[in-house]
Specification:
By secondary structure, the protein is an alpha/beta fold. It has 7 helices and 10 strands. The strands form 2 sheets. Strands 1, 2, 3, 4, 7, 8, 9 and 10 form an 8-stranded mixed sheet that branches. The chain has a two-stranded antiparallel ribbon with strand order 5-6.
């Protein structure tokens, strides 16, 4: 199992660097059970984003836009139920214990608390079926939090992660989640905490075979614009 670490400046930079690493260094892995049984390229990966607050949060070439990211952050992460979904990350975070609310209260009491970890995966997720239906456990398993030097840093673990289609929305949405989390702590406690680094771990950060051509085209060196070349040439001298 090949493990690598990526250091990125912002969220779009993290997406490109992750795709490039998997495309060029990834190991072949055939999924035998799950939502999609197919060939992939994958890495065990750590991503550290130093300035995830930098805008834009998603690259213009990503297969998502900010409207979707905002929906994902609000409905899927921050709040609770979505009618058509069996569960969301937010519903797991909010019930049966409202972990987000408890995390806010913990930090209002003590900013140097090292124990504020919000867990999404449940023990029963080990089962292949639940309530006589095939069960798909959450990809995002936990969000660990820590305030250092006045900044809220999040460390997240994904058991499995679609690097092309899922990752750009996930990291941007988690940044928006962190901004809302910090804003609520600041509002209630009259504090001035900022958002800090985002760190992600995933044992299986992958590109599906059906995405290979999309990723290959995305990572190709951009061809110079002939019109631009002519314009520069005409302006020389």
């Amino acid at each position: 199992m090949k493990h690598i670490k990526i250091e990125a400046f912002d969220c779009p930079n993290a997406w490109f660097k992750t795709l490039n690493a998997i495309w060029n260094q990834g190991e072949s892995f055939k999924i035998g059970y799950g939502s999609e049984c197919t060939n992939t390229k994958k890495l065990n990966i750590t991503i550290e984003i130093s300035h995830p607050e930098n805008r834009p949060l998603v690259d213009e070439k990503a297969p998502c836009d900010m409207k979707y990211v905002q929906w994902y952050a609000l409905k899927y992460l921050w709040s609770g139920e979505i009618e058509e979904e069996t569960y969301t990350y937010g519903s797991r975070l909010r019930t049966p214990v409202d972990q987000v609310e408890m995390a806010i209260r913990r930090y209002l009491e003590e900013q140097c608390d090292r124990q504020v970890t919000m867990v999404i995966r449940l023990p029963e997720d080990i089962h292949k079926t639940l309530n006589n239906r095939q069960h798909e456990p959450p990809c995002l398993s936990l969000i660990d939090t820590e305030i250092l030097d006045g900044q809220m840093n999040l460390t997240c673990y994904f058991r499995s992660w679609d690097a092309y289609a899922g990752l750009p929305a996930n990291i941007a949405g988690i940044q928006l989640f962190n901004e809302a989390f910090v804003e609520e702590i600041n509002r209630r406690g009259n504090l001035n905490i900022k958002t800090g680094k985002l760190v992600f771990h995933s044992k299986n950060c992958h590109i599906y075979e059906r995405q290979f051509k999309l990723v290959e085209d995305l990572l190709k060196p951009q061809q110079p614009d002939n019109r631009r070349k002519m314009l520069v040439k005409s302006n020389v001298g």
